[in-house]
Amino acid sequence: MQIIVKNIAKDYGKRFNAVHAIKDIGLEVKQGEFLGIMGPSGAGKSTLLNIISTNERPDHGQVLIDGIDMTQLHDKDQAKYRRNKMGFIYQNFELLDSLNVKENIILPMALRHASKRLIEQSFKHMTRLLNIEELSKRNVDDLSLGQKQIVAAARALINGPEILFADEPTGSLDSKSATILLNYMQLINDKEKTTILMATHDAFTASYCSRVVFVKDGIIFSEVVNPGDRNKFFEQIINMQRTIGGGSYFNVSKNS
Ligand SMILES: Nc1ncnc2c1ncn2[C@@H]1O[C@H](COP(=O)(O)OP(=O)(O)OP(=O)(O)O)[C@@H](O)[C@H]1O
């Protein structure tokens, strides 16, 4: 699943008060990449993720996924594409409190009208992979924040998406829970070959990626490629953050 973003731009608001959230971004993401998107607050990270994931339409430009221009699809076809090929993890989990853990996790499959057998098989596979088998009957309200995010990850992954979008997935987690989640994301990236696009402020979180692009003022300012050593990569990310600036919005604390 190759992603090619060509010259996208996105403004919010009316002419004189317009915010140029994305000015001109081009980007290529290879099949199986774990790409980080960093940058100061308001730089355009979430907007970029939302445009690539078809949750928002750009004003200009193309988003080609395996050669199909997503921006040209009707809303209904975009929604179908998202349901079938994409998974999402957000900072605030977005789990449904009225459903238990298992019901939350299998929801995307139920929405696709998958067979009971397939649902059970996939549920078993995912909960085993993420090591949360014992949580299945619990209420969402009774889980720790870290457990909630792993459950949200299981829900995002149960349909076997080809692309996983994660927007500040560790933003609400303590460092231990963040590390557990990131190790699972890396496992999914390795084992299932899922392409991952993750926006984050946090250098430690970003150090799990294979490459990080830095967005500033709606353009890609630079990128850093993981040299194969997470500690070295962490230092490189921090140096790039310092170069770009962004004041206190950047979290450069190393969690472990
Ligand atoms: N729906 C919207 N309506 C108006 N302005 C918006 C909207 N969404 C984003 N913006 C503006 O677009 C710019 C980019 O926002 P975006 O959320 O993409 O940045 P970000 O890098 O993800 O920021 P953060 O790290 O704080 O989440 C900001 O100036 C933001 O205020």
Automatic annotation (TrEMBL):
The keyword ATP-binding applies. Residues 3-242 form the ABC transporter domain. CDD domains: ABC_MJ0796_LolCDE_FtsE (cd03255). Keywords: ATP-binding, Nucleotide-binding, Transport. GO terms for molecular function: ATP binding. InterPro entries: AAA+_ATPase (IPR003593), ABC_transporter-like_ATP-bd (IPR003439), MacB-like_ATP-bd (IPR017911), P-loop_NTPase (IPR027417). The keyword ATP-binding applies. PROSITE patterns: ABC_TRANSPORTER_2. Belongs to the ABC transporter superfamily. This is ABC transporter ATP-binding protein.
